[in-house]
Amino acid sequence: MTRKNKIVLVMMLLIGVIITYFSLRSISLKALVSDLIKLKWGWLIVALISMLASFMMEAVVVKMLLHRETMNFPWLDAIRVPLIEQLFNGITPFSSGGQPAQLFALVQSGVDAGRATSVLLMKFVVYQSMIVINFIFALFIGFHYVADKMHALSFLFLFGFLIHFGVIIGLLLVMYWYSFTKKMVKISFYPVKRFIKKERITRWELVIDEKIENFYQESLRLKGDFNLLLKIGGLTLIQLIFYYVVPYFILLALGQKNVSLVLVTTLHILIVMIISLFPIPGGSGGAEYSFSTIFSSFISNPSKLVLAMLLWRLLTYYLGVVLGLIALLISPHKVESNKSQ
């Protein structure tokens, strides 16, 4: 980690402490302790296992993609990749550090940078596709519910969907209309040429052209391996489901009864979409507010609601950050090839 990353990590931990303090200041300590004692720890362990299973599914995806590249990639190294991704997603705005961190982890394990980029491109395409599919499902089931609870922020759900959907459209354009996409990208630079130096524009164009070319070449391989694409898509969907159901198990741990698994999972999908729009690393502040507002319908007790929010953040955010820090300390093995290259 760079010095800047370490500073941001400390800042995020401090923000977490501050948010926790403000969440607890109006809550009776006696009531909170009582709720902790009454927790059904079995369900909380299930929530923890579900979160760990989400990381494991992503590790399986990484291993399968590298196996396609004729590599015997060790399981320990495959598990390091999503954990390091979680760490850097958690300490960078809009989770922008996750992709470079995964590339670093793969190269550190001896994977050629070109192949690592190829693997991560395929993984990214499939992941974005599954995010959009899940969100469309969630919009149909839970948007009206959220709109009633959060009038001011309901438009963010649609905005978030449009961003993710736009990413998928862009990727599909590169895959199936390559020449048109390159022309449109070049045209999009014309309006800004009056305000930015020509040398910088040229540099940006070269970088974007290279990324489009790399993705296009990878997309040709992607379309040629449809069976693998289906398998990766299925595993990614399972990965996301394990993550999205965590609040349901937390509610069960708090003794809530007659809770709808589908509705809770749907609402969590929408909350995650809101978090992705906040520029603060981890969506701090927005995440806690969104969760507390939406899930107040399920938990009327203020101390239980705060406890549910804290447990949710511990499992879905801080757990990944801590495990990512541990993963950084583990020395990777060097990858081996199944056949001569």
UniProtKB/TrEMBL annotation:
<feature type="transmembrane region" description="Helical">
    <location>
        <begin position="228"/>
        <end position="254"/>
    </location>
</feature>
<protein>
    <recommendedName>
        <fullName>Phosphatidylglycerol lysyltransferase</fullName>
        <ecNumber>2.3.2.3</ecNumber>
    </recommendedName>
</protein>
<comment type="similarity">
    <text>Belongs to the LPG synthase family.</text>
</comment>
<feature type="transmembrane region" description="Helical">
    <location>
        <begin position="124"/>
        <end position="146"/>
    </location>
</feature>
<feature type="transmembrane region" description="Helical">
    <location>
        <begin position="7"/>
        <end position="24"/>
    </location>
</feature>
<dbReference type="GO" id="GO:0006629">
    <property type="term" value="P:lipid metabolic process"/>
</dbReference>
<feature type="transmembrane region" description="Helical">
    <location>
        <begin position="260"/>
        <end position="284"/>
    </location>
</feature>
<dbReference type="Pfam" id="PF03706">
    <property type="entry name" value="LPG_synthase_TM"/>
</dbReference>
<keyword id="KW-0812">Transmembrane</keyword>
<keyword id="KW-0808">Transferase</keyword>
<feature type="transmembrane region" description="Helical">
    <location>
        <begin position="152"/>
        <end position="178"/>
    </location>
</feature>
<feature type="transmembrane region" description="Helical">
    <location>
        <begin position="44"/>
        <end position="66"/>
    </location>
</feature>
<dbReference type="GO" id="GO:0046677">
    <property type="term" value="P:response to antibiotic"/>
</dbReference>
<keyword id="KW-0046">Antibiotic resistance</keyword>
<dbReference type="GO" id="GO:0005886">
    <property type="term" value="C:plasma membrane"/>
</dbReference>
<keyword id="KW-1133">Transmembrane helix</keyword>
<comment type="function">
    <text>Catalyzes the transfer of a lysyl group from L-lysyl-tRNA(Lys) to membrane-bound phosphatidylglycerol (PG), which produces lysylphosphatidylglycerol (LPG), a major component of the bacterial membrane with a positive net charge. LPG synthesis contributes to bacterial virulence as it is involved in the resistance mechanism against cationic antimicrobial peptides (CAMP) produces by the host's immune system (defensins, cathelicidins) and by the competing microorganisms.</text>
</comment>
<dbReference type="GO" id="GO:0050071">
    <property type="term" value="F:phosphatidylglycerol lysyltransferase activity"/>
</dbReference>
<feature type="transmembrane region" description="Helical">
    <location>
        <begin position="305"/>
        <end position="330"/>
    </location>
</feature>
<dbReference type="InterPro" id="IPR022791">
    <property type="entry name" value="L-PG_synthase/AglD"/>
</dbReference>
<keyword id="KW-1003">Cell membrane</keyword>
<keyword id="KW-0443">Lipid metabolism</keyword>
<keyword id="KW-0472">Membrane</keyword>
